[in-house]
Amino acid sequence: MVDLWSGLVQAFWLVVTFNSELVEIALRSLRVSFTALLVASLIAMPLAAILAVKRFRWRRVVIAVLNALMGLPPVVVGLVVYVLLSRSGPLGVLGLLFTPTAMVIAQVIIIVPLIASIAHQSLRDLWQEYHDLLISMNVTQMQKVTTLLWDARRALLTAALAGFGRAIGEVGAIMIVGGNIDHATRVLTTAIALETGKGDFALALALGFVLIALAISVSLAIHWLSRTEREGSW
Amino acid sequence: MSALFPVVLDSAETARRGQVLAGPVNLTLDGQGICVVLGPNGAGKTSLLRLMHGAARLTAGSIRWSCPTPQARRAQAFVFQRPVMLRRTVLENLAYPLRIRGVRRREAMQRAADWAGRVGLGGMLDRQAPVLSGGEQQKLALARALIAEPALLFLDEPCASLDGRAMREIEEILLAARAAGTSLILSTHDMGQARRLADEVVFMLHGKVHEAGPAHDFFNQTATPEARAFLHGDIVE
After folding, report:
1. Which residues of A touch B (CB under 8 A)?
2. Where does the secretion signal sit in this chain (chain B) (predicted)?
3. More exposed terminus of chain B, fewer Cβ within 10 Å: N or C?
4. Which residue in the set B86, B87, B100 is minimally distant from A143, CB to CB?
């Protein structure tokens, strides 16, 4: 209990004094996770829409695999990305290992299945509703996709937020591919892991509270900006 | 415009998982005014409309429009029994068919507002369509179908579960569309509506066309006992 309390106190002081190190790693956390979210959304949402409107042979398999991959263990993803990006690996020439870019890549792989699965769920329901009308109107495959994505945007926001939550709280993969290097690839979660290992529970807890506060404020900000939960609007 | 007609259905049939929903249907329609498809529930009215529109698969026989089928499809619109509302505002719902045809946004919005006024939705342009009442939704669906100026409009029981006033408003819109030269094919089991609107009648039973002809003849000298029974309000099975 003492640890928890002193963690809270320390978190408070870190924040109000605008601790430069904290600001640095918090901003890096946000930057890495937002970039990963952006890239992942650009992949996952059109994919989800195509899976909803297009009937092809392996559709069910793809959906089942995507659903299964939601539970992809981050450590394994980190390991695979590490092997791919390491100097002797196939993408070693790019020199990306232990950079924020490597962390983004790992996080994209982790959250694409999550975002695609959640998005597909709501797009499929919406497609069922729209199917007859859009077929009757002779819209092109592309128009179906854009119509669904636009009209389901509120639900897609939830999918994106889930992806962001997973990305910003993730530690296993980015620890491996980023290396938790001070001033280069250290982010909130890897710093927490480090401080816990060092036995500085108060600082670790403080960073943890900052992380949670950050995640909540991002979610609130996005909800507020997009004005969800208003009656009669999607 | 009416290069679509006559349309000839030759032993046309639609089936799903081996079960025949409608057909085989032999029918020729010349698209003059309003053709009313009558019949009890499950007679295949909806299936026939969907089949002609191309929304149900043609599993046997043929449907020949007077122009190439893709062109015919583009000149048609369909209003469903339960209107499908896009999760958008009334105005955006109306503009949608124009937008997907590449009409510019400003012009689409102007025409949408104009049509909203014509069907009495002028005061609710910015309301979300899914929260409208049943009658308002059906009027919106109707305006949305007519806005792209189809040569042929299918309506699948457009007034089921609507009250008298909403029904009258919808029928007025339909009559205005007929006057403007649009062909209409409408299914209903409301006898009164059929009498008010029909120029031509197709009476369906058990998935097949039982009797077809000009409305005046159908209502006054019905040829078959089943159709006569249906007209008298008896239960036809």
Report:
1. 126, 129-130, 132-133, 135-140, 143, 147, 151-152, 232-234
2. none
3. C
4. B100
pLDDT digits 0-9 by tens, A193-232: 999 999 888 888 889 989 999 999 998 888 887 765 554 4
Q: Which structure tokens are listed for A36?
A: 């990963």
What architecture is the A2-225 domain classified under in CATH? Answer: Orthogonal Bundle (1.10)
Cβ of A136 within 8 Å of Cβ of B100? The answer is no
Q: Do B74 and A147 lie within an 8 Å CB cutoff?
A: no
Q: What is the pLDDT along chain B (237 residues), one digit of tens a residue?
A: 447 888 888 888 888 888 888 878 888 888 888 999 988 888 888 888 888 888 888 888 888 888 888 888 888 999 998 889 999 999 999 999 999 988 899 999 999 999 998 888 888 888 898 998 888 899 899 999 999 888 899 999 888 878 888 888 888 889 998 998 889 999 988 888 888 888 888 888 888 888 888 888 888 887 788 888 888 877 776
ipTM, interface predicted TM-score of the complex: 0.86
CA distance B104 to B106: 6
What are the domain boundaries of chain A? 2-225
Q: In A, which residues are within 8 Å of B86 by CB distance?
A: 130, 133, 147, 151
Q: How far apart are CA B16 and CA B58, in angstroms?
A: 10
**Is B84 in contact with A135 (Cβ distance < 8 A)?**
no
Helix axes A141-151, A100-136, angle to 10 degrees: 110
Q: Which of A133, A147, A232 sits opposite B131 (nearest CB)?
A: A232
* Cα distance between residue A52 and residue A124, in whole Å: 5
A151 to B86: CB separation less than 8 angstroms, yes or no: yes
What is the reported pTM? 0.85
Q: Do B87 and A234 touch (CB under 8 A)?
A: yes
- What whole-number distance in Å separates Cα of residue B202 and Cα of residue B186? 10
* B37: three-class secondary structure by DSSP: strand
A136 with B131: Cβ contact below 8 A: no
Domains, chain B, in order of start with CATH, read 2-82+151-231 (3.40.50.300)
